[in-house]
Amino acid sequence: MNMQTPRLSANDVFDILEAKTIKLSQAGYYAMYSSWLGGIVTDVGLMNLPIDDHMVHRGDGVFEALKLVNGGIYLLEEHLERLFLGAAKLNLNQNYNKDQLRQIILQTAQAGLDFFVQKNPGAQIQDFSAIVRLFLSRGPGSFGTNPYETIGNQFYCVITELKAVSPEKYKTGVSIGKSHLAVKSSWFPTIKSCNYLPNVLMKKEAVDRHLDFTVTFTDEGFMAESSTENIFLLDRSLQLVHPRCDYILKGTMMTRIFELAKYHNIVPVAEPADITESNLIGAQGVFMSGTTFDLLPVNNYEGMKIPSATVYEKLFKLLKEDQRAGSPKMTALK
Ligand SMILES: Cc1ncc(COP(=O)(O)O)c(C=O)c1O
Fold first, then answer.
1. Which atom of ligand 1 is nearest to the CA of 255?
2. What residues contact 250, with CB distance under 8 A and at least 6 apart?
3. Is the pTM for the entire model greater than 0.85?
C-alpha cells in the first residue's frame, strides 16, 4: 500500500490539536502549566512537551504526584522537598525555587478547578478531586545524553482526574506477590526520576499475574517496595515497621502514616529495618501505601493468608481526618 505522509502547516497543526482537544475533552486532564509555554493551558491538545527535552528521550527528570481533595493539596511541602532532593542529587535544578513552584502549582490547580466547574455546572470545590503531577526536566536542546547540551531545565505541572480505587479493596484487602525484578541499584531507588522502566515492568507483572501489586526484594533478600507503592508491616511483636530507606523511595504517605501512628499512640513504631520474606509471611498485618489510594490492607502474599489487623481502620481514619480542609498538612487552593 502506498502511503503519503502529509506535510503540515502551522494552521493544519492548530486545527488538528483543536480536534484532539474536542475528542479528548472527557480524558480527565484539567489543566497544564508549561515553563516552555510560560503559562497554563486547559485544551488537552495543547498539553505537549518539546521532544528534545531530555526528560522525553532519556528519562532525565524528576517527578511527583500529589493528591488534591477537600479544596486543598495534601502534603505539598513533603512532595516539594522530595522533588528538590532528587533534583539536587541529579544536579538538575538551576532555574526554580520552592516558592516559585508552590505558586505555579496552586495557580495551575485553580485553573484545573475552574475548568472542572465549567464542565460540571453547579459543582463545588469539595466535588473536585485530582492528582497534581509535577515534572522537573533537564530541558530541551539536543537529542543526546549530555546534560550540558540543554538550554536549561523546565517545569511542567498537570492536573488530572483522581481515579478512585474500588471501595471493596479497602474492605477485603489486596493480593500481592513476589516480583521477579531486581531492586534498582545504588541510590536510584531513592530518587523519583522519570527513568521508571523497572516500575513499569513491575506493574505489568502484577497485571499479568492478576495481582494488585508485586513487591521487590534486594539481593540480600530484604523486602523493598512495589511499582509505585510502599509496603510495611505490623510485625510479630505488634510494632509497625517499614523497610530501610536506602533501597526504597520514601513515600510521603507512608511517612505521614508513621507520624500519625506515633503521635496518636495508635501502635508502637519501630525504626526502619531490613525485613525478610519470612517476616512478611509471619506478619500480624501488611499494608500498602501511596498518594492516590492512601492505605490498603493486604490479605494474601503469594496465596498465603495475611491476618487482618484492627489497627488498619484506626490509621485509615486518621489519614482521612488529616486530609480535611483546614488540617495543617493541607494547602488550600483559595
Ligand atoms: C517507587 C515508589 N515507591 C513508593 C511510592 C509512594 O510514594 P508516595 O506515598 O509519596 O505516593 C511511589 C509513588 O509514586 C513510588 O513511585
1. 9
2. 82, 190, 230
3. yes
